[in-house]
Specification:
By secondary structure, the chain is α+β, with helices and mostly antiparallel strands. It is built from 10 helices and 11 strands. A hairpin with a 5-residue loop joins strand 7 and strand 8. Helix 4 packs antiparallel against helix 5 and helix 5 runs antiparallel to helix 7.
């Protein structure tokens, strides 16, 4: 009877410790792409001032919480988020990987990765990092990782941003990433090509008919295409690699341009002034709000990056 009385709490404690313990991701040569969400443990640094030395302390290390979702989302927060994951190379040779952060607007991202001697190397990336300083020259936020045969390696990623903080980490084999990136670039090329066709076609109609609804549609297509170009990090790569702050400035301008032109197009094409005066008043307010937003976009972008 006494054995049963002590055994039950012990079993419960073991079950809880197993539930909240972080696993080790075992990788081999067949792995192509792995989402790390369910293999992460995260810690919220409210002060935003902790260093790797602080994080490695047992007191802080024990406070990491195991993730139960594919992409932990912290929304808009002033905290810095630390993510930790363990890798074990099950092959008999060194393996090279790419660590991808799926949300390209994260402003400051630091990866602390163990080298061959076991010491941590700090790598810096993010949408506010000049392109030349990125560890891998790509519009996507990437870090190189090398795993040693048989060893368990613990990696840390620190994220701090004024945008939505989404911890979307993926591990890619280099060949799989290059194949996927090739397909993605092809799809993006088709997307921007279609936008250009739509833009010039509707511009031609506007020049022929002088109907302002076509002009607003042209502005909408142009603003949407440029916004996507900026959002995907392509402008930083090709237009202003050493001025990532310009990305935020033009994102706010083209974001406002999308709202302005889309709303004006809807007013013209639906004739809301005639058929729905109340809706037209609301749309006019939206138009003026977007104009004010565009005028003050410089101040807004400075508020984001400073």
């Amino acid at each position: 009877m006494s054995v049963t009385r002590w055994a039950a709490p012990l079993i419960i404690m073991l079950w809880i410790s197993q539930l909240f313990s972080q696993d080790t991701l075992q990788i081999n040569g067949n792995a192509g792409k792995i989402s790390l969400g369910l293999h992460l443990a995260t810690y919220e640094d409210i002060s935003g001032e902790m260093t790797l030395e602080n994080i490695l302390a047992p007191k802080i290390g024990s406070q990491f919480q195991v993730s139960d979702v594919q992409s932990p989302n912290y929304g808009h927060t002033s905290s810095a988020i630390w993510a930790r994951f363990n890798l074990q190379n099950q092959t008999e040779q060194d393996m090279n990987w790419f660590l991808e952060l799926g949300y390209p607007l994260l402003m400051e991202v630091q990866a602390f990765l163990p080298d061959t001697s076991g010491k941590y190397v700090r790598l810096q990336s993010g949408s506010m990092t000049p392109f030349s300083e990125r560890p891998i020259k790509h519009s996507i936020l990437l870090f190189p990782i090398m795993t040693l045969p048989g060893e368990v390696q613990t990696c840390y990623v620190r994220i701090e941003t004024k945008t939505a903080l989404l911890v979307d980490l993926k591990l890619w084999s280099r060949i799989e990433f290059m194949n996927s990136d090739h397909d993605s670039q092809f799809i993006l090329g088709i997307y921007f090509g279609i936008l250009l066709i739509m833009l010039f076609y509707n511009l031609f109609i506007y020049l022929s008919l002088r109907d302002s609804s076509y002009l607003y549609y042209v502005i909408f297509v142009l603003a949407s295409g440029l916004y996507q170009f900026l959002f995907n990090g392509l402008a930083i790569e090709y237009f202003w690699p050493e001025r990532p702050d310009l990305n935020w400035y033009f994102l706010t301008i083209f974001g406002g341009g999308i709202v302005f032109s889309g709303t004006q197009f809807a007013r013209k094409i639906l004739l809301t002034k005639v058929h729905s005066p109340r809706l037209d008043v609301f749309l006019k307010v939206l138009v003026w709000a977007s104009i004010i937003f565009i005028i003050f976009s410089r101040k807004y972008s400075l508020a984001i990056i400073n």
